[in-house]
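TA notes, week 10

Several of you asked for a full example with nothing omitted. So below is the full record: structure tokens for the whole chain, then the designed sequence directly under it. When grading your own attempts, check the secondary structure regions first.
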């Protein structure tokens, strides 16, 4: 399991790229130097409480999301199929998610048959 700083950094990177922001743009939004954002994302430094508040506002996320644990977040890469799928469906509303879930379940049922 990765260190907490690495987990938080991976989550910040995920939400920053999902928002279409560069490190420099996020740094400007949170009134920090680009190197500070880079250090946070690389797990070299943990954000202060003040920076956490600024990050969640700039990224439009809940602070709890910065501290979720799991190998999924840490192993995330541009080539990871699961990450790509989650990025696609993350923008969908509840009705669309229900439809996607039904399609996945139907596909898995066919595979098992």
């Amino acid at each position: 399991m990765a260190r907490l700083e690495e987990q938080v950094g991976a989550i910040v990177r995920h939400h920053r790229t999902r928002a279409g922001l560069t490190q420099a743009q996020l740094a400007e939004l949170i009134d920090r130097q680009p190197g500070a954002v880079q250090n946070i994302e690389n797990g070299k430094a943990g954000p202060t409480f003040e920076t956490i508040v600024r990050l969640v506002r700039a990224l439009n996320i809940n602070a709890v999301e910065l501290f979720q644990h799991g190998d999924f977040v840490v192993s995330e890469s541009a080539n990871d199929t699961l990450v790509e799928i989650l990025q696609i469906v993350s923008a969908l509303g509840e009705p669309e998610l229900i439809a996607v879930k039904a399609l996945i379940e139907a596909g898995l049922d066919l595979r098992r048959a």
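The first helix runs from residue 4 to 18. Use that as a sanity check on your answer.
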